[in-house]
Amino acid sequence: MKILVINSGSSSIKYQLFEVTDGNDEYEVLARGQADRIGITGSTLEQKRSDGAKLHRYGEIKDHKQAINGILEMLQDSEKGVLQSLDDLWGVGHRVVHGGEDFTRSVRINKAVVKAIRKNADLAPLHNPPNLMGIQAVYEILPDIPQVAVFDTAIHQTMPRKAYMYGLPREQYKNYRIRRYGFHGTSHGYVAGQAAEALGRPLRDLKIITCHLGNGGSITAFEDGKSIDTSMGFTPLAGIVMGTRSGDLDPYIPLHMMENEGLSVSQVSAIMNKQGGLLGICGRRDMRDIRSAVVEGDREAAEAVEMYVYSIQKYIGAYAAAMNGVDAIVFTAGVGENEHHIRASVLENFGFLGLKVDVEANRNHETVITTEDSAVAGLVIHTDEELVIARDTYRLISEVESEKV
Q1: pLDDT class of 301 with cuts at 50, 70, 90
Q2: 77 given a catalytic annotation
Q3: Which domains, from first to last, does the chain contain?
Q4: Known binding site: residues?
């Protein structure tokens, strides 16, 4: 059984094709690729098979339907493809960023689901519309194939009201759904589960703090197997310092900038979302470049790292207090998985919890990076959001198929 996983952006589509072994929970990636610069000059399609065989195609890709067609053609390529025909496809899973309060889990896509995703587009205007473009393109090309939506926000719908409500007039929530939603949920849920497995304990028995640290970043607290708080809020702007996002700010700062500099809403949004964070502090957004600059004596780069680490430490400390303890702290995503210096700096302030870093294990990026006698476990877990989407797609389609029998 083959499942196609699609992550559809405004000008790109990333995809992976999985082979699922029925009953064994085994998922093999047969191919992965990307359609890039959709609707822009210089469009490309590229695909890499699991054995390393590559395909590249160049030429105009005017819209998402043409991009999906191109992806399906590459998957069926006579020499370097992995599908004999489109009849081999069992289902398609989509990453959808914002499900609002409508979705607490992944769902089979139908007209009502599409309508709800469209309704929530005002909460994620840069993400939900292109997510829908991918869904619509598949409908037009393969109208009979089952499709599944997996939401970044769904896992955080278990947060209690005290965690997701803001100190605003209730009308703002009732009329405009202004509340904390959280993001990166697919990643947080996956690595929390993997950490529990690595520790040999049920997730529901653990208090876990997961740190998804990439160009975007967020921290989530899991108690009783559920997300009970997370650092991103109404939008992905809130929380820790990120690559280009400011993270938490005094709410009056944007108003101050508008009043004193005559900036528009869109200009202030650009400053906070695209010109802020590490980029705004030191002129660099990639932690590898920042680390190199620190070695060369760049003081602004060093300050950026200090601010980044401190913002993470504050959330870990807050969530340890919120849960009245913590059993494990998990690092994932590009920075979390690859930058041992950052992990060491973040964890050095948690000796008061009985946490002891194993220096060699951390430097070697091992799964467990704390000593055997550490009261709190530190772990590095590779995130795999596409696998989560494939699993949910297979599960939801299987449930419907079993009902037919």
Answers
A1: very high
A2: no
A3: 2-151 (3.30.420.40), 201-385 (3.30.420.40)
A4: 7, 14, 95, 212-216, 286-288, 334-338, 385
